[in-house]
Amino acid sequence: xxxxxxxxxxxxxxxxxxxxxxxxxxxxxxxxxxxxxxxxxxxxxxxxxxxxxxxxxxxxxxxxxxxxxxxxxxxxxxxxxxxxxxxxxxxxxxxxxxxxxxxxxxxxxxxxxxxxxxxxxxxxxxxxxxxxxxxxxxxxxxxxxxxxxxxxxxxxxxxxxxxxxxxxxxxxxxxxxxxxxxxxxxxxxxxxxxxxxxxxxxxxxxxxxxxxxxxxxxxxxxxxxxxxxxxxxxxxxxxxxxxxxxxxxxxxxxxxxxxxxxxxxxxxxxxxxxxxxxxxxxxxxxxxxxxxxxxxxxxxxxxxxxxxxxxxxxxxxxxxxxxxx
Amino acid sequence: xxxxxxxxxxxxxxxxxxxxxxxxxxxxxxxxxxxxxxxxxxxxxxxxxxxxxxxxxxxxxxxxxxxxxxxxxxxxxxxxxxxxxxxxxxxxxxxxxxxxxxxxxxxxxxxxxxxxxxxxxxxxxxxxxxxxxxxxxxxxxxxxxxxxxxxxxxxxxxxxxxxxxxxxxxxxxxxxxxxxxxxxxxxxxxxxxxxxxxxxxxxxxxxxxxxxxxxxxxxxxxxxxxxxxxxxxxxxxxxxxxxxxxxxxxxxxxxxxxxxxxxxxxxxxxxxxxxxxxxxxxxxxxxxxxxxxxxxxxxxxxxxxxxxxxxxxxxxxxxxxxxxxxxxxxxxxxxxxxxxxxxxxxxxxxxxxxxxxxxxxxxxxxxxxxxxxxxxxxxxxxxxxxxxxxxxxxxxxxxxxxxxxxxxxxxxxxxxxxxxxxxxxxxxxxxxxxxx
Lengths: 325, 436
What we know:
The complex is a heterodimer. Chain A is mainly alpha-helical. Chain A is built from 15 helices and 5 strands. In chain A, strands 2-3 form a two-stranded antiparallel ribbon. The longest helix of chain A is centred in the N-terminal third of the chain and has 14 residues, at 2-15. Chain A is 37% helix and 4% strand. Chain B is built from 6 helices and 23 strands. A 5-stranded mixed β-sheet of chain B has the order 4-3-12-7-8. In chain B, strands 5, 6, 9, 10 and 11 form a 5-stranded antiparallel β-sheet that branches. A 5-stranded antiparallel β-sheet of chain B has the order 18-17-21-22-23, with no helix packed on it. In chain B, a hairpin with a 5-residue loop joins strand 22 (422-425) and strand 23. Chains A and B meet through strand 1, helix 2, helix 6, strand 4 and strand 5 of A and strand 3, strand 4, helix 2, helix 4 and helix 5 of B.
């Protein structure tokens, strides 16, 4: 008895995840090492995550010219997208150039981003060795690596980037209770002797860049009012199909398209009036006047609210067979 | 602006006296009423009726309207066609790595409609099938796991209202006034009720290594496979993996079917299309925390991992691009305030460029790390004015002026510009973006 309960206790400890488990632990599935390695592509500054492989500056040039130069420029100099080269030493100037060469603190970031996100329009087409080669070539264009350099998983983390010491974490933005760098006071009265406008948009700038800025506001703002034409909704007949018009004006409450409800089906009316000359005018008069007797004793009320042109459009559609349009 | 093209017809706000107005303002207000009545007559003509005559019965009362569910998923009235997200001309080189700004000037309350939530993509919007989507959680954990969307939807959930602000919001304004409306000065800002699973729930589920774990890496399933380092403390405090936004699933451009959400932290950390979370002991120094989203200081050093969004406010009406047509008329000054460090305690408004301030009314609810709406009665006397708002959060932090920020950070840091915004009202009624 003693033995068996000890065995039972041991079994419970070993097999029950309940000791540290949540009631929802059955949700989700174990992730195997093989699954992890197929998705885990990130690379850290210390090289963790870099796959084995290598590539040279020379090998990188052909790949770069084919895949990268169209956006980044032949020498990585184009700032149309992100400049890769140049700008080293400009970060203290009035016109800092934030390039891959001037800004990154670790070369592993360059490898990681090429691997995960480049080329922009068709990411993840480069093989591991190709990513090493392109990284080497870009660092050579940036005059950080020599022409004969080759990079692999061991040497890439050792590349010394010019801005290696260019970052600081001595600021209050990393924690919710961090100390703000600017301490303002909430003065309520006589807070400034005079107030001068120091910056405004150049005359004509808004119109040139944004067009008529009034179109960025709801016409009902009570502040700006738009020209009436642009606030007006489209005319009814332009916005709706004949079937929708028939629904809007209540025709479909009593008439089905294919079946009689209180009144006859539209398709039945189309059939009966197929040979009537000027059927549209005849039917329009009947709709306006209302009446009974043609299809039975149910009374059709006179329809006066539907506009003439709308009625004509609905009847033309009806007489053509009332097909969906 | 060609004033002759502005029709005078418009809605007039009901006359409400400015309870905080200085002596004399009431007289100016009453003088203004004469002008207001004239304008009202113009408004009547535009609305199709003659004052004193019988009011017309609208056609809409004489016929059937559209059937129910005429649109199975409703769209805004066609009269609201101007209320849309917009790109800022010339800001980005591609439409895939770009930004669409929320039209704050046209919105009410604190909740951003899902179709107008701001959008920042780094390689376009992927179309993800929720039946195929997986979230992997691994690294310094006892039990690496993968979850389907069904698994995640079955887990214990929370719903919370939070703001989301891009770290670069107002970034164009560091050096000078640069854009005309609040949509472009502050529109990388939205607020929604987000529903999902607390990240702490998932981290417990996989048994994270509490001794060694310090940071998480979050990765998206877009072309950029966007990655950001998240500090473990924030992950455990209130970060969520989110699938719901304002009662429905996330929109594709906001991360459908799953995103990370880190409240109070710059938007790029709330990785969209979330596919993988790795637990580690060091930050990763990804592109989006080195080349971008780091704040360049005058000494050439970049502040890295500037996660928190400090307290900030802005008047959304009247704001740049509007024209006040009603001299002597009542205007409700209204706007938004928020803090990544907690909740908004107070908002002050100035109409004289910061010489004097009065405290605005806060609309309840006032929630942590959520937008707070403020309101302030103002009767415009027709003379030039400089409108500003300034918020204070529950840590006592006071929103600074652009001058105070520049003294410490210069003008090249791009991110985290939380300066007091100034809207200049000219005698003509035009409202313009300026700096003082």
